[in-house]
Amino acid sequence: MPAKSQLTRRRFLTLCASAPAMGLASAARAATQVWSGQAFGAEVSLELSSDALQVQQDLDAVVQELRQIEARFSIFSPSSELSQLNARGRIAVSEDMHEILRLARRVHLASEGLFDPTIQPLWEALVEGRDTAEARALIGFEHVEIGSSHVRLAPGQKLCLNGIAQGYATDRITALLRRRGYDHALVNMGEFRAMGGPYHLGVSDPAAGQLGRLSLTDGAVASSSPGAMQVGDETHILHPKGGVPLWSTVTVEARSAALADAISTAFCLMPRDQMARVCERLDLGPVMMIDFEGNLETL
């Protein structure tokens, strides 16, 4: 099967939204409006408290912003900024690309290299059934040069930003809604971010089902599950150093959805003590881990 059809989804989103406890001062004047769509090969959604006319106007802006973000970071569109970088190896980059790669570098360092966007050649080798030794030798985000206005890849390298782009999109849409006057919304562009709240979410595992719940107010949360999809003989969350996932599902709360998105990916590959160190470095919120026997732990 071609790489594109195999890699459409990085993960199942294993956080299932339940009815939010809105607590809105304006609840008598405005109903909760729900919108859903598609982005990055996944279902996305918004819950907004506003009148229907205003929501429709604002949704037009949301969709436009979302398509612009996809045009930057899609691994599947040959015309995307990411695809151009992968094809040419060095390009002048947009502010969006510079911002997301700087955050990726921060998480790469904090995770001791376990979050690494340079795994794309390994993805391609696994999907195509090729030997992976050459692709593994290309892994190393530390070799990517991030300049003030350009990015340069090491020879043969390619980036995949699926481990952070959905969270980044969630943050961008949240910021857009805030600028347009919203202070209560649940944004899900592949990961969740709440303005106001509390919003109650179910924490699920692909094998064990729903095992926990959390309440989200003015924060972000992301969940990663290695077993949600296979690529070749490996899970879709690839260990950049050749190891295997240690957890079936990891859910992380953080200040931003992009940070939660990226670090939840890396946490699937970490033992508990290493997670604790990274939580302190990045000032993360609570972490829930589900092991391969269906046991839930918290950190």
From TrEMBL:
It comes from the Bacteria. PANTHER family: FAD:PROTEIN FMN TRANSFERASE (PTHR30040:SF2), THIAMINE BIOSYNTHESIS LIPOPROTEIN APBE (PTHR30040). It is an enzyme of class 2 (transferase). The keyword Transferase applies. It comes from Celeribacter baekdonensis. Keywords: FAD, Flavoprotein, Lipoprotein, Magnesium, Metal-binding, Signal, Transferase. Gene3D superfamilies: ApbE-like domains. Pfam families: ApbE. Its EC number is 2.7.1.180. Its cofactor is Mg(2+). It catalyses: L-threonyl-[protein] + FAD = FMN-L-threonyl-[protein] + AMP + H(+). The keyword Lipoprotein applies. Residues 1-30 form the signal peptide. InterPro entries: ApbE (IPR024932), ApbE-like_sf (IPR003374), TAT_signal (IPR006311). This is FAD:protein FMN transferase. GO terms for molecular function: metal ion binding; transferase activity.
